[in-house]
Amino acid sequence: MIGSNHLLVLYLGLELLTLSSYAMVALRRDHEASVEAAMKYFVLGAMASGFLLYGMSMIYGATGTLDIGEIFKVIDAGETKPQILVFGLVFLVAGLAFKLGAVPFHMWTPDVYHGAPTSITLIIGSAPKLAAFAVVMRLLVDGLLPLAADWQQMLAFMAIASLLIGNLVGVVQTNLKRMLAYSTISHMGFLLLGLMSGVVNGEVDTGTAQTAYSAAMFYVVTYVLTALPAFGIILLLAREGFESEEIADLAGLNQRSPLYAAIMTICMFSLAGIPAGGLLRQAVGARSPGGHGPDLQHRPGRVCRGDVADRCLLLPARGQGHVLRQAFDRWRDRRAHGRALGAVLQRPAGAGAGDLSRWLDGPVCRRHRASTDFLRRNGQ
Questions:
Q1: pLDDT band at 290, cuts 50/70/90?
Q2: pLDDT at 354
Q3: DSSP state for residue 31 in the 8-state scheme
C-alpha cells in the first residue's frame, strides 16, 4: 500500500488493513462494548471508504489516469477542470481524515479504543496511524501537490478542531483508554499542522517541503513509540476478569510496581509535552517553513493561526496529571475508605445501621475490596 503508485492498489491495501481492524475489534463476541464498538467502526468506516473511493473516481474522471505520478503531471500542466478536481479532493480528504481520526471524523475513535480489547487497542493506535500518514503523503503530496492551496485550508480547519476538541474533551475523561483516544485526536491535529506547512503561498520549494514533511513523519513515529508503552502498561495491569482501564485503577501503582509507574510517567509526560513531547512539537514548528500556507499568520516556531496551537499545548497536562496523581498517591483509597467509615461510626448507636449497610455496598468499599483482591491475586 505504501509503495504503490496506483490509486486502486493503494485503496485495496488500505481496505485490507481496515477490514482486519474491524474483525479484531469484534473478537470478544460476548462483550457488549466490543460488539457495539465494532459495529460503529464498521458503519463509519464503510462511509469513509465510500468517500475515499468516490474522491478517487472523481480525480480519475478529471485526469483520465489512476497512476499517481501521471495525475501530478496532468494537474501541473493545467489540462483538467479545476472544479471537478476540487470536488473530488473534498471527498478524498474526508476519507483520509477518518483514517487519521481527525475532527470532524473522529466519532469512532473513543468508542473503539474503549470497547476493543486492550491488546487490539494497542495495535489500532499504532500501525494504522503510520499507514494513514503514508497514504496522505502518497495522495496529497505525491499526486495532488499542485492543489495544495485547496487542501491546506481543509487541513487547517481539521487541525484546529482536532486540537480543541481532543484536548478539551480528553481532560474530563475518567477512563484511561478514552482519554488516550482523545489524546490521539489532538496529536493528529499537530500532525496535520506539519503536513500543511510544506507549501508556502502556493509555491513549492524542495527544501521547505522536505523539512516540513520530515518533521511530520518524525512526529507521528515518535507519537506511536510513546503510545505503545502507555497501552502496554494498561495491558500488563489487566488480569482475568479485571481490566485496569479506569484512571482510579492506577491508585497506588507506584507502590505495587515502581517500574510500571515510571514508564507510565514518561509516557504521560511525553504525551502532555513535558518535556520530550514539548521538544517534539517545537521541532514540528521550528523545522517548518517561515510561512505556513495561505491566510496563516507567520510566527517563528508556530504552525497554526494565532496562538491556538500554543494554548492547546497546556491542556493535555491536566488529564495526564490526573493519571500520575492516581499512580503516585499511595493513600488515596485508604483516606477515602477511612473518612467514609468514620462518618458512619461517629453517629449515635443504631442511627447509622442503615448507613453502615449502604456503606458496605458503596463504591468506596467496593473499590477497596477490589484493590485488596488485586493485591492478593498478585501475591502482594
A1: very low
A2: 46
A3: -
